[in-house]
Write a structure and sequence with these properties.
Layout: H1 3-33, H2 42-49, E1 85-90, E2 97-99, E3 105-108, E4 115-116, E5 127-132, E6 135-140, E7 147-149, E8 152-153, E9 158-159, E10 166-168, E11 171-176
Parallel strand pairs: 3-4
Antiparallel strand pairs: 1-2, 1-11, 3-5, 5-6, 6-9, 7-8, 7-10, 10-11
């Protein structure tokens, strides 16, 4: 074998080793810090939640699940427009209350989540509560075990009625006045 061929093989092997090292570093970074969560654009949230149709209504869309029915009893308006707090009803932080502002609320195991839930069934970035057109919506962030609204799995951003049970991991919570 010529020296040039040997040099090219050595450089190729060295390059392959560096690619392997970077792949390991990338995998470790993803495991430690999680994947980036993409922000939902306002038009996409409205179309996904079944709100007012947009100009792109003729484009093919994925299946949209129906919002969970409002709980019965209690009278009055059962929409989340009047919600002022989020109350954890069961789980490790049972009884904790969080005031609702205008910002979105992220839920998960990550330390950068607004509500940190540390259990084996909650993903790093599990779900997001967001105010959309005056109503609170729940969005699952591709969690492993899913997010449930009144027992139904949430696949698209879905409005949360007052008093409806939202389950994230082993924790349940409700929106209240």
């Amino acid at each position: 074998m010529s020296e040039l061929t040997l040099l090219v093989l050595q450089l190729g092997f060295l390059l392959l080793l560096w690619v392997f090292v970077f792949a390991i570093v990338y995998a470790l970074r993803s495991d430690l810090f999680g994947q980036r969560v993409r922000k939902l654009q306002p038009d996409a949230a409205a179309a996904s939640a079944g709100a007012a149709p947009s100009a792109s209504a003729t484009a093919p869309t994925a299946a949209v699940s129906k919002p969970a029915p409002a709980p019965t009893g209690g009278g009055g308006d059962a929409t989340s427009e009047n919600a002022s707090r989020l109350v954890i009803t069961s789980g490790a932080k049972s009884g904790a209350e969080f005031p609702l502002g205008r910002d979105e609320i992220t839920i998960g195991r990550s330390s950068d989540s607004a509500i940190i839930i540390r259990d084996d069934y909650t993903s790093t970035h599990h779900a997001r509560l967001m105010l959309w057109n005056g109503r609170w919506m729940i969005q699952d962030l591709d969690s492993t075990n899913g997010t449930f609204l009144n027992g139904s799995r949430v696949t698209v951003p879905t409005p949360i009625p007052l008093g409806a049970t939202v389950k994230v991991g082993a924790t349940t919570f409700e929106l209240r006045r």
